[in-house]
């Protein structure tokens, strides 16, 4: 059963203002047991354990149909197909979300460890920007600043396993 609870980690940042902390937690919360029953092992690992599917392995990487991409955990609509583009990165890439309020951004220090902490001072790229669903905090992927300049310069590199595609309804 879904309930409202939880707190955002202190490293959460607002999608519109990368330095501004947010304080509200996820709106949709479901037990880990329920998610393990409902999601595939890869979907669970990506959305809950923040893993990354291998490049060029996801079903939506070279997928080009008209419609909407939803969060696989809570079904929130996140990205429209007209914002998807071929970036060559090996994962589905979008230049923007449906609305900035649909996603949350957080600093991701996963590449930083005690052995490479000194490298952080020389290479700020070790800290990535994680993309999360704003409704359930599912890990979706990462945002980079190498997207199409004409579309704002952002690349949302999203794991296929975190998404569910809903085709557009054809109007007659």
From TrEMBL:
GO MF assignments: metal ion binding; peptide-methionine (R)-S-oxide reductase activity
Spans through the membrane: none
Database matches in SUPFAM superfamilies: Mss4-like
Catalytic activity: L-methionyl-[protein] + [thioredoxin]-disulfide + H2O = L-methionyl-(R)-S-oxide-[protein] + [thioredoxin]-dithiol
Keywords for the protein's UniProt record, in alphabetical order: Metal-binding, Oxidoreductase, Zinc
Region (Disordered): 1-29
Gene Ontology terms describing biological process: protein repair; response to oxidative stress
Class in the EC hierarchy, top level: oxidoreductase
Names of the cofactor(s): Zn(2+)
A cellular component annotation (GO) from this entry: cytoplasm
Amino acid composition bias (Polar residues), ranges on this chain: 1-24
Pfam families named among the record's database cross-references: SelR
Listed EC numbers: 1.8.4.12
Reported function: Methionine-sulfoxide reductase that specifically reduces methionine (R)-sulfoxide back to methionine. While in many cases methionine oxidation is the result of random oxidation following oxidative stress, methionine oxidation is also a post-translational modification that takes place on specific residues.
NCBIfam families for this protein: peptide-methionine (R)-S-oxide reductase MsrB
Annotated protein name in UniProt: Peptide-methionine (R)-S-oxide reductase
Gene: SelR_0
